[in-house]
Structure formats: structure tokens, C-alpha cells
């Protein structure tokens, strides 16, 4: 929402503050100023000049030499002159002797060139000089050089100088910037969605008047009507009152289309609206002034003297006044006459009823359409207009009548027609006067302030909020749709008391202990270990493409493919909620690999979303997963050392969480190397998996190095995780150690051997560790050599050789059942 | 015999003196002091001496043994020092050579900002709670006073999952879940991931993170809200940080405010970070709307409270001077290594 200071001053004439004062105070009282721009920025020494004589340039065919009367400005700005007449050389062609034009005198500055190119930040300095040998002491200007455009100054010719209109009240030497209405500042406001009334000049003006304690002068809505009755010209019927709570129509006769007056054009242009003609300008002007869109129909095109407001039918087609054909449906509200559709309600009028030069009688429309319906219709039709964006916000029905009267007042003021008597309208009962019981004590209790009741009432008065003393009720004006409860009134109080003046205290609430959930502690401790192990933290999106499943080689019927679909995704790439956490880390590894970053290790802690049913009938299972991934270009990838390094990280994590009984089993995940992957369980519960990425998957992600991943399912390990610790006494007696070296079939796993040793070792067996593994020709086909160091200890005495001999015998017997042969 | 003894002494000391390696010294020790050594042999031959001669000779032999042992010890010590000096000299490093960097990983800036916020509010007695990312319409909108026809519910802002389910657009639903538990007072913050239907660019991401805050008790005031958030701002941005509260609008708070902090870069003088204003917009906040309290089962006549919500990415971008939000989701290791 933009508003110019000059226009605001029309309603708050006493307002006299600097641009920054205005910005700061309005922002602090709740009408946030996002920024402002002075329209006379970079305009210096620009005066009105009268061209007295135009002569040919002695040495240049395309230039002329002008004698321009600039009155006393030449003396004022100390420019070379002769009785106030300066010499200016120009290439312009559109001027004649006697014309009044804006002139920038030497030493001055203009906004930019006349070619409409982007304006230089500091403008362009104009100096005295010689053009092909002839002195020139300034420059006559086009409107573009003054920082505006023909759109806003339609009298500016397509090419050449701006020439003041014959009736312009200007004299040589006058400030031309003033004469063009450019000594002004345009403020850009951020209006919050609850303050519909502030999307209007009068609304912002009311806030400004209240903020600065100045008088608010509202626009004149009085109309001198003719003897003719409006109702003889038109009648209105609303078939869908749910979509149109109020429809007001007034008829003006004897219309003369002409340009609107300069003041109206200037104000419209300061808000970025292009002046067109008096009638169109009036509707736009009232829209900006009241925040109420208006429409004007040529009554000659309205059949049967009748307006019917009703829904369109599915598939109807309609040509709007921009010449485009639009397809409608049964939820689009239309303005119709007795025979046909003549406008899309609240969005755009029809080509068939638009105002043309020859219009004689006009029907003005000001209505209150259903905001959400207009918003949705405008979206479906694909046509968002100034009008629809006003209606979307939900307008005050009381405003429609005020606005239509104002428009008729302007018709009379601009002398562009005669207003017939009365108004035709269909209106649902207007909402009753809103009242809120005034409770200053409660307001102070909520704010933590001590503001007097009288002071509060003084804040309300300029806002139009009345007070009925006998009933102790505040009377809320209809335009303040946002004021419904005492807390809303409290905000009005604190806005004008000052958010900054409100005390600053700390809650006197009872003391509480701050804490985090166990799962948060688990997540953060796993992240710490991941970082200690060299992994850096990644964040990726929760949604991805369904193609991820193909990249991960999942079978067509894999349960992971049962993913939640986003109904309105940003695109296929972001269309399903992830069910496997790998894609984020793999995609990030891919980015790094393709940027030639060496040996990258990443982890991510994020949810996967597992639907309990599809389509969703209940909230899905959101499971927090820690995903570790890295690629390595050294030999450790090929030998499998990298796998065991990653396994070491997983073990460290589980051990840190107090999860000791962990098993690693062969698994068959399609996206992992078939011989290099493991499922991790505690008891029977799967809590993690890890492995080398399948080379096909590496290829799909364009990672040209061996890649290893591990996924820890935090949700499933939570029941087993604990940070509780109890101390075990340190051993005081020495351990007895024994080494076992054996050959076993390759198919026998370390886990099987270790389990056998532990099972047979009895309670004296303290630890088992594998210290050598070897495969080679001398061992024999299908065999491998494994060597373990065993340690036996008793907490209460020193063990003798005999003590361990029995356990060793049991162990060796057990190992033999697995096909082990002792090596000596 | 005494003569023999003094000759032996000279030979022994000479051999030790001339010994250039530990092995040579050891040879000397064995030759004179070993079981079959010369001095040992002399001691054995003592039996041939007369009873008067024996003690004197014995004492002389023992004195000589001590002397030889001392000489051996000295020679060994000197030799060890020489060798160690040589070793140390040979092992000298060029300490200016590049370090072997420890390969520890780095946290994501979002996590750093989140943990810092958590630290501050836990210090003030707030509990950190989590809430789901997939949410029912009711908790994301309706219970927060956002009516069915509100533009925020348009598809252009919200990702819908079918039925009443959607990806939450704000963490504010956590307020409702917390109030519905029926335990008051409530002092909580709830960090989490949120989603909006924004195309990716330098300042937008369809996924980002917020931290919600809620305090509900008897007698909580707008002044308390200001005080609490001022403490937060000073802790997060530095002791000399100033705060400014401006009126704003959120459907679920009334009065509502936005909080600006004095630009930590230019200390309020105006720079490119604060776009010349000296202030940076940080968060939205307000007093919980009585209708929201009521819908969630909290009696608005007895209790009041405040709520606030801030964007993690926004804080991270500001704090670490990151100019493009896309960097946060690319995970280029050269970026992450800087935190």
C-alpha cells in the first residue's frame, strides 16, 4: 500500500513532519512504513521557462537555439542571462515560441535521461557549456528527465519536451517541480491483514491523525441530485446473497468524458495509477480513498434496466474489458443485465458494457462481495486485479454506500455529469453496532501498565471508537473489523501509549527447571560422536522425488515405496515425504564429489515419514534417523577397512547410549553392496544398518568413489538407551592370557566363533579379541586362519594354569564343532 | 700379590678408558669382575695367603672392585649421555611444517543457533518439547484462530497431504498441544522443521526451522513478554543489544508485536546488514489470544500468557553473515567446515 504525503495532507491538513519522523512514528503506532521515496529526488534548479524565440543553430542542422525567459530564477541561481532570459540549445522539436516548459538551469540536476532508461542513483548534473560552439545555460526537460513517465502525465507528448497546459497557473521563474506536484514523498506501508480499513487513504490518514494528534478531515460525500429518480433507470436483484451482502447502484446522466483535473491525476499517479479520463479516474480515486472498488457501466449497454447478481454456470465464457476471453464456473459471481453477463463481480467488468468516449449515462456500482469467494474465483480464472485484491480482504458493507456517494460527489465537482436522485441497493441487514465492555483494570493487568481510564479514552477518540458512559461500553466503528474483544482494545491502548514506554519486567511465575527430552539428549549425543568421528552435519529436505526409489534399486513392491504424497508439491522433485533417510546425505555427497571435494563425511539427523495407512487417516509415524555417509578414494574402500571404520563409529555410538548387547547380521538391502552390509540389532530389535553403497546406486548419484552409509533408527533404540552408569571395581589380580590360532571354513563368521568362545569360556573368561585373520594358499582352499587372544581373570584371586585349562578345553571342543582346526 | 693387584688395576682402568662402545665396557666388566674374571680369581687365590696377610689383601681387593665398578659406571653414563645427545640432535623437526589436522566434523549453523537458543531458555526454566511435522489442519490453523477462509490456508502457502493432514507451516501448533495437556504453568520452547510452498531462492526455502515459545500462568503481562525477549536478545546477540517492539498482527496473539534488535554489526549506526535502519527484525510475539486459550482448554479469565516464534535460518544467516539461504541445504563441505 502506497500513499503520498500530499494526498494524506488532504485529510490531515495540519500534518507537518519530516519523512523520517513520519516513518518512525507511524511504524511505532502500528502502521509500518517499509520505505519511502522522494519524488523530487535529484531535481535541482528546475524552473518554469517561457520560450521567447527559436532560431536555427549556425553549425548544426538538428539543434536549435532558444531564448528562454526564466524570470528572476536566473538571478536567483546566478546563471548567465540578459534580463532574465537565458540561452539554451536543444534538439527537441515539439515546442513553439510562447510555450512554457520546465527548465533545469546550469548547475542543477535532473533525475535521468529522456529515453526512459533506469535512473542513475545520483541523477544527472547539468552544466553550462557549448553545443557545437553555441553557449547553452541549461536544458529544457521532458517528464522522463524529471523522474516520471507519460503514464502519469498524459499531456506529455510521446517525444520531446513537457509543455505546460494552456490553463496551467504558472509563470516564468516559478518552481517547476512544485507546479508538477513533484515536491512529494511516496510512502510504502506494510498493512497487516486485520487492518482492512488501512488499505485506504482515509484509513492511513486516520492513523496519522491519531499518531500525531492532528485533526482528521474526511472527504465530502454530499450530492446535489437532479429531479430524476435513479430507480427509473435501474433496478437490482441479488440471487446469491451469500456472495454479495450489499449492492449499491447510482446513475449519472449527461456524462462528458474529459481528462480529470490535475490534482486528481497527480494523486493517482503518486500511487502508481495511470490517469485515463474523469469517469475512470473517479472510480480509481474512490477505490484508493475508501478502499472500496467501484465499477462504472455504460447504462446504454445494460439491457432491461436491470442488474442481476448471480453465479455463472460451469463452462460459461465471458470477454472481460481487457479483451480476454475467460472461462467461468458455478462458483464465480457475475453481474448480469436482463439478458446477459456484463461483468465478473469484484474482478473485472465486461467488454460489452465498458465505458467508451460516447457514454451518456453511467451506472456506478459499489458492492460488498464475499472475500474468500473473490479470492478463489480470481485464482481459478487467473485474473487478479486491484479490485479483486481489495475484495479479498473482506470489506465493510457500510463503506459501499459512502464510497458511491463520494463518487457521485466527484462527478458533480468535476462537472462531468448530473447525479439522479436516490440509490438502488440490495443489502442484507448490516451488522449491529459492535460494543465491547470497557475494563481499564483488566487492560492494565494484561499490559503490565498503569494507564488512566481517561487517557485510554483519549486514545480511542481519534480512532472513531466511541464510549457510552451509562453502559460502560465502547462503540466500535464498522470499519474496525479487527476490534472484537477486550484484548483488541488493549492493543489500541498500548499502540498509542507506546510499545516502547511499556515497562520491561520478568515473569513472577514459579521457579521451574528447564530441560530437554531424552530423545533430544540422545540425538545431540549421537551428533557429538559423529562430529568426533569426522562427520559434518547436513540438512536436507523432507520431501523428494519418487525416482529416489529407483535410484536406490528398490523392488516395485518394496514397502518403502508406500510414501505420503504432497497434493500440491513444488514439483515432482519435491513430491513425496521420504521413507528412507539416505537420499539427502547421498545427494549432498554427490554435490561434494562433483565439486571435487576430497573424502567427504556427512551426517544428518532427520525424520522419515511412514504412513500407517494411505491415503492418510491418522498421523504417520515420524521416525528420527541418524544417517552417516562418506565416500573414500583411498584403498580402505576396496579392502573393506572403511566398512569397519564406520562400524566402529556405530559401535561407539551404541556403547555411548549404554546399549551393550548388539549383534551384526547379514542383510539384503537392495541399495547396499550384497556382501558388505549388516543389520544391527539389540536383542531382536533392529536399531541400525550399515554397508557399502551398491555400485549401481553410486552411479545413479554420480559418486565416482566407494561410498559407505550407516543409518541409526533413533526411535527404535530409545527404549534401550540410557546415560545411567554404575562403577565396576578395577581388577586387582592379574589376568591369565591364552592365544588360540585355528583354521576354519570361510563361511564361519567371527560372530559365530566369538559366541562359541564366550559361551564355553565360563565366568572366568574376561575378554576375547581377534588379533589376526589370514587367507592364503598355504591355509587351504575354502579356509581362513583366525587367531584370538583370550583373557581370564578372577576378581578375588590370582588364577593358576590349572584354573584356565578346563575352560580352554571346553572352548577348543566347542570350536571343533564349527569345523575349526587348531594350528600349532 | 700386591704387585699383581696394582698391575691388574692399571690394566682394568685402561681397558675401561679405551672402551668405545657399551659392548667393550661390558667385556671389561666380564674380564675383571665376572665369575671367571681376574679379580674374582685373585680373591679365590687368597686361601694361599697367611692368616695375617689375608684380611689386608681382602680389603685391597674389595677396594679395587669398588674402584673398577665406579669406573665402569662412569664410562657407561658418559657413553649414554653422548648417545642420547646424538639421538636428540638427529631427531630435530621442522616445527613449521604443516600440521596433520584432526579430522573432526562440524555442526550445521542451524544446529548451532538452535542449541544456543535452547541454552538460553533452559537457563530461564523453559522445557524443550517436540511436536510433529505432519499436522492436522486444526492444530496448524483453526486452533490458532486462523479461520477456514484465511488466505494463509491457500495452497500457495501450505503443502497439503490429503484429508485434514498437512505439513505444518509454523511451529505454533506446539502451543496448542502443550495447552491441551492441561498442566499449567507452561514454560516451553519447541524447535522444529516447518514447510511453506515457497520456491527456492536466496532468501526462501520450502523447508526451514522455527522455535516456538510459550509461557502461561496467572498474571503474565505484555511487560513480561518484553522483559523475557530482551534477556534472550542480549544473551544471543551480545550484552549491549537493544530491542524495539513494534505493533504487528498475528491471529493467535493480541496484542501482537514484532521485535527488532539493534544491528550487532554497526551497533545501530546503519549498515548494509540492517539496510541502513540500525535495526534488524528478529521475531514475532504477543499475548496469547483468549480465544486460543479457551479453545485449548485454558481458562482465559484465570490465566494469561505470551508466545513467540522465531526463524532459525534467519538467525543463522544473520549471525554468521551468510548471504544465500541455499548454502544451508547444499551441504558443501567447504561451507560446513567453517562452523
If you had to describe this structure to a student in words, what would you say it looks like?
The complex is a heterodimer of chains A (824) and B (339). Chain A is elongated, with a radius of gyration of 42 Å. Chain A is built from 23 helices and 39 strands. In chain A, a hairpin with a 4-residue loop joins strand 18 (333-336) and strand 19. By secondary structure, chain A is of the alpha+beta class. With 339 residues, chain B is an alpha+beta fold. Chain B folds into 2 domains: 2-90; 109-336, BirA Bifunctional Protein, domain 2 (2-Layer Sandwich). Chain B contains 12 helices and 9 strands. Chain B has helices spanning 2-18, 22-33, 38-44, 53-90, 109-123, 137-140, 173-180, 222-237, 290-295, 312-320, 327-330, 333-336, and strands at 127-128, 134-136, 165-167, 186-195, 207-217, 243-250, 253-262, 279-288, 304-311. In chain B, the strands form 2 sheets. Chain B has a 7-stranded mixed beta sheet with strand order 1-4-5-9-8-7-6, sandwiched between helices. A two-stranded antiparallel sheet of chain B has the order 2-3. In chain B, strand 6 and strand 7 form a beta hairpin. In chain B, helix 1 runs antiparallel to helix 2. The chains are: A alpha+beta (824), B alpha+beta (339). Chains A and B meet through helix 9, helix 12, helix 14, helix 15 and strand 27 of A and helix 5, strand 1, strand 2, strand 4 and strand 5 of B.
Amino acid at each position: 500500500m502506497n500513499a503520498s504525503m500530499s494526498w494524506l495532507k488532504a485529510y490531515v491538513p495540519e500534518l507537518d513532519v519530516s519523512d523520517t519522523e513520519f516513518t518512525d512514528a507511524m511504524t511505532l503506532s502500528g502502521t509500518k512504513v517499509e520505505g519511502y521515496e522522494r519524488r523530487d529526488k535529484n531535481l535541482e534548479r528546475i524552473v518554469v521557462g517561457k520560450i521567447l524565440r527559436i532560431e536555427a543553430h549556425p553549425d548544426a542542422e538538428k539543434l536549435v537555439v532558444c531564448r528562454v525567459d526564466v524570470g528572476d530564477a536566473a538571478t536567483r541561481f546566478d546563471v548567465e542571462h540578459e534580463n532574465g532570459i537565458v540561452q539554451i540549445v536543444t534538439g527537441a522539436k515539439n515546442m513553439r515560441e510562447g510555450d512554457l516548459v520546465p527548465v533545469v538551469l546550469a548547475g542543477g540536476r535532473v533525475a535521468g535521461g529522456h529515453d526512459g532508461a533506469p535512473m542513475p542513483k545520483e541523477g544527472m548534473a547539468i552544466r553550462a557549456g557549448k553545443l557545437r560552439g553555441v553557449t547553452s545555460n541549461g536544458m529544457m526537460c521532458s517528464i522522463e528527465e524529471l523522474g516520471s513517465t507519460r503514464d502519469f502525465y498524459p499531456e506529455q507528448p510521446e517525444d520531446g519536451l513537457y509543455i505546460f497546459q494552456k490553463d496551467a497557473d504558472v509563470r516564468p521563474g516559478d518552481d517547476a517541480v512544485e507546479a508538477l506536484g513533484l515536491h512529494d514523498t511516496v510512502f510504502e506501508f506494510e498493512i497487516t491483514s486485520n487492518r482492512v480499513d488501512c488499505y485506504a487513504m482515509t484509513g492511513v490518514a486516520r492513523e496519522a491523525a491519531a499518531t500525531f494528534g492532528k485533526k482528521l478531515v474526511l472527504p465530502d460525500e454530499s450530492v446535489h441530485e437532479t429531479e430524476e429518480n435513479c430507480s427509473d433507470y435501474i433496478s437490482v436483484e441479488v440471487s446469491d446473497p451469500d456472495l454479495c451482502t450489499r449492492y449499491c447502484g447510482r446513475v449519472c446522466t449527461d456524462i462528458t468524458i474529459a481528462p480529470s483535473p490535475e490534482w486528481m491525476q497527480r494523486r493517482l499517479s503518486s500511487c502508481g495509477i495511470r490517469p485515463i479520463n474523469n469517469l475512470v479516474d473517479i472510480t480509481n480515486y474512490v477505490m484508493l480513498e475508501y478502499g472500496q472498488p467501484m465499477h462504472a457501466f455504460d447504462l446504454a449497454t445494460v439491457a432491461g434496466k436491470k442488474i442481476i447478481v448471480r453465479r455463472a454456470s460451469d463452462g460459461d465464457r465471458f470477454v472481460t474489458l481487457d479483451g480476454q476471453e475467460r472461462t467461468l464456473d458455478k462458483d464465480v459471481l457475475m453481474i448480469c443485465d436482463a439478458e446477459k453477463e456484463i461483468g465478473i463481480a469484484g474482478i473485472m467488468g465486461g467488454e460489452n458494457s465498458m465505458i467508451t468516449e460516447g457514454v451518456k449515462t453511467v451506472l456506478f456500482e459499489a458492492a460488498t462481495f464475499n472475500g474468500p469467494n473473490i479470492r478463489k474465483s480470481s485464482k481459478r480464472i487467473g485474473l487478479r486485479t486491484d479490485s479483486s485484491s481489495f475484495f479479498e480482504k473482506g470489506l465493510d458493507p457500510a463503506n459501499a454506500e459512502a464510497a458511491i456517494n463520494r463518487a457521485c460527489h466527484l462527478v458533480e465537482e468535476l462537472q462531468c455529469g448530473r447525479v439522479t436522485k436516490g440509490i438502488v441497493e440490495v443489502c442484507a441487514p448490516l451488522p449491529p453496532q459492535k460494543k465491547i465492555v470497557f475494563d481499564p483494570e483488566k487492560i492494565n493487568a494484561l499490559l503490565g501498565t498503569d494507564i488512566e481510564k481517561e487517557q485510554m479514552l483519549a486514545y480511542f477518540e481519534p480512532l472513531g471508537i466511541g464510549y457510552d458512559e451509562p453502559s460502560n461500553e465502547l462503540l466500535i466503528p464498522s470499519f474496525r473489523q479487527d476490534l472484537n474483544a477486550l484484548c483488541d482494545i488493549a492493543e489500541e491502548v498500548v499502540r498509542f501509549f507506546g510499545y516502547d514506554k511499556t515497562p520491561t519486567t520478568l515473569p513472577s511465575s514459579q521457579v521451574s527447571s528447564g530441560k530437554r527430552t531424552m530423545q533430544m539428549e540422545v540425538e545431540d549425543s549421537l551428533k557429538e560422536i559423529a562430529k568426533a568421528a569426522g562427520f559434518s552435519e547436513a540438512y536436507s529436505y523432507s520431501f523428494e522425488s519418487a525416482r529416489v526409489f529407483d535410484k536406490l534399486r528398490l523392488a516395485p513392491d518394496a514397502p518403502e515405496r508406500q510414501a505420503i504424497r504432497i497434493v500440491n508439491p513444488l514439483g515432482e522433485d519435491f513430491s513425496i515425504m521420504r521413507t528412507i533417510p539416505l537420499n539427502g546425505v547421498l545427494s549432498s555427497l554427490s554435490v561434494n564429489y562433483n565439486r571435487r571435494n576430497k573424502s567427504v563425511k556427512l551426517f544428518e539427523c532427520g525424520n522419515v515419514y511412514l504412513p500407517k495407512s494411505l491415503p492418510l487417516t491418522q498421523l504417520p509415524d515420524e521416525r528420527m534417523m541418524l544417517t552417516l555417509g562418506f565416500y573414500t578414494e583411498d584403498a580402505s574402500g576396496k579392502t573393506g577397512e572403511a566398512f569397519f571404520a564406520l562400524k566402529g563409529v556405530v559401535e561407539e555410538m551404541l556403547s555411548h547410549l549404554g546399549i551393550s548387547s548388539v549383534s551384526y547380521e547379514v542383510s539384503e538391502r537392495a541399495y547396499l553392496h550384497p556382501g558388505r552390509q549388516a543389520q544391527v540389532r539389540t536383542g531382536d530389535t533392529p536399531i541400525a544398518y550399515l554397508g557399502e553403497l551398491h555400485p549401481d546406486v553410486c552411479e545413479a548419484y554420480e559418486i565416482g568413489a566407494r561410498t559407505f552409509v550407516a543409518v541409526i533408527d533413533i526411535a527404535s533404540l530409545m527404549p534401550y538407551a540410557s546415560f545411567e552408569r554404575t562403577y565396576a571395581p578395577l581388577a586387582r589380580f592379574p589376568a591369565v592370557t591364552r592365544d588360540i590360532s585355528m583354521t576354519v571354513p570361510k563361511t564361519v563368521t567371527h560372530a559365530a566363533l566369538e559366541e562359541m568362545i564366550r559361551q564355553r569360556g565360563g565366568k572366568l573368561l574376561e575378554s576375547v579379541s581377534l588379533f589376526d585373520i589370514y587367507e592364503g594358499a598355504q591355509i587351504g582352499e575354502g579356509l581362513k586362519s583366525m587367531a584370538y587372544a583370550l583373557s581370564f581373570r578372577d576378581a578375588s584371586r590370582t588364577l593358576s594354569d590349572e584354573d584356565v585349562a578346563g575352560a580352554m578345553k571346553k572352548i577348543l571342543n566347542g570350536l571343533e564343532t564349527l569345523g575349526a582346526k587348531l594350528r600349532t | 700379590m700386591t704387585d699383581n693387584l696394582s698391575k691388574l688395576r692399571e690394566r682394568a682402568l685402561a681397558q675401561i678408558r679405551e672402551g668405545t662402545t657399551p659392548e667393550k665396557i661390558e667385556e671389561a666388566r666380564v674380564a675383571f669382575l665376572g665369575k671367571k674374571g681376574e679379580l674374582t680369581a685373585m680373591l679365590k687365590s687368597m686361601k694361599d695367603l697367611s692368616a695375617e696377610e689375608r684380611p689386608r689383601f681382602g680389603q685391597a681387593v674389595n677396594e679395587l672392585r669398588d674402584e673398577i665398578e665406579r669406573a665402569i659406571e662412569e664410562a657407561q653414563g658418559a657413553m649414554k649421555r653422548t648417545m642420547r645427545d646424538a639421538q636428540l640432535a638427529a631427531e630435530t623437526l621442522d616445527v613449521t611444517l604443516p600440521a596433520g589436522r584432526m579430522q573432526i566434523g562440524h555442526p550445521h549453523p542451524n544446529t548451532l543457533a538452535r542449541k544456543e537458543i535452547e541454552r538460553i531458555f533452559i537457563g530461564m526454566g523453559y522445557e524443550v518439547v517436540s511436536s510433529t511435522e505432519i499436522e492436522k489442519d486444526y492444530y496448524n490453523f483453526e486452533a490458532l484462530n486462523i479461520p477456514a477462509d484465511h488466505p494463509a490456508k491457500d495452497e500457495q502457502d501450505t503443502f497439503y497431504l490429503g484429508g485434514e493432514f498437512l505439513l505444518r507451516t509454523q511451529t505454533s501448533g506446539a502451543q496448542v498441544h502443550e495447552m491441551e495437556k492441561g498442566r499449567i504453568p507452561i514454560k516451553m520452547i519447541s524447535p522444529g522443521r516447518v514447510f511453506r510452498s515457497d520456491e527456492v531462492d536466496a532468501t526462501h526455502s520450502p523447508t526451514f526451522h522455527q522455535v516456538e515459545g510459550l509461557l502461561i500462568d496467572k498474571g503474565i503481562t505484555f511487560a513480561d513478554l518484553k522483559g523475557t525477549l530482551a534477556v534472550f536478545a542480549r544473551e544471543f546477540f551480545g550484552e549491549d543489544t537493544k530491542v524495539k517492539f513494534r505493533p504487528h498482527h498475528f491471529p493467535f496473539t493480541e496484542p501482537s508485536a514484532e521485535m527488532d534488535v539493534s544491528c550487532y554489526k554497526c551497533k545501530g549506526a546503519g549498515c548494509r546488514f540492517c539496510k541502513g535502519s540500525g535495526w534488524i527484525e528478529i521475531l514475532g510475539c504477543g499475548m496469547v489470544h483468549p480465544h486460543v486459550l479457551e479453545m485449548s482448554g485454558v481458562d482465559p479469565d484465570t490465566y494469561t500468557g505470551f508466545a513467540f516464534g522465531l526463524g532459525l535460518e534467519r538467525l543463522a544467516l544473520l549471525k554468521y553473515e551468510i548471504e544465500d539461504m541455499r548454502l544451508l541445504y547444499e551441504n558443501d563441505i567447504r561451507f560446513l567446515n567453517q562452523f
